[in-house]
Amino acid sequence: MSSLRKSTIYVIDDDPDVLGSLRFLLEAEGFETLTFRTAAAALETGVPRHADCFIIDYKMPGMDGLDLASRLHRQDARTPIILITGDPDESISARAAAVGVAYVLRKPHLEENLVAHVRRAMQETETTPRP
Fold it and tell me: According to the UniProt entry, which residues carry 4-aspartylphosphate (predicted)?
């Protein structure tokens, strides 16, 4: 039996169809996936230290994805964050980078490159020396 732990991805999106689709996609690629419909629900978990990557929707009720990303980044700057959005506003990428987001991906074609970006973000984190 392998002692290797599956990478754990947290997906936060208020759309249950998106959550289900991303869970299916990520689990098919071998990731353990935990899903949340609000930023508050994700934060209530205490932001577990075993998260390997966060995938966060930009527009959600209550706290938006950039606010959540900022809080998560302050708690643990090493866990990569990928922001997903259907918003065409190009300034989102610059604002996202300012709060520690590794990548911004546009909906609706997430499946085309999401897994590659998750793997790349986690690999970049592994090769970045700790401060």
Answer: 57
Nearest Cα neighbor of 54 from 7, 106, 109 is 7
Which residues have CB under 8 Å from 117's CB, separation 6+?
82, 102, 103, 105
Two structure tokens written together for 69: 């990303």
Cβ partners under 8 Å of residue 124, min gap 6: 80, 102
**Contact yes or no for 55/107 (Cβ under 8 A):** no
- Say which residue the tokens 């997906």 belong to: 11
Non-local CB neighbours of 42 within 8 Å, separated by 6+ positions: 10, 12, 36, 68
Residue range 8-127 in CATH 3.30.1490.20: no
First to last CA, the chain: 34
**Has residue 26 got a pLDDT over 90?**
yes
Domain ranges of the chain: 8-127
pLDDT at 66: 95
84-106 confidence digits (pLDDT tens): 998 888 889 999 999 999 899 98
For the chain, the average pLDDT equals: 87
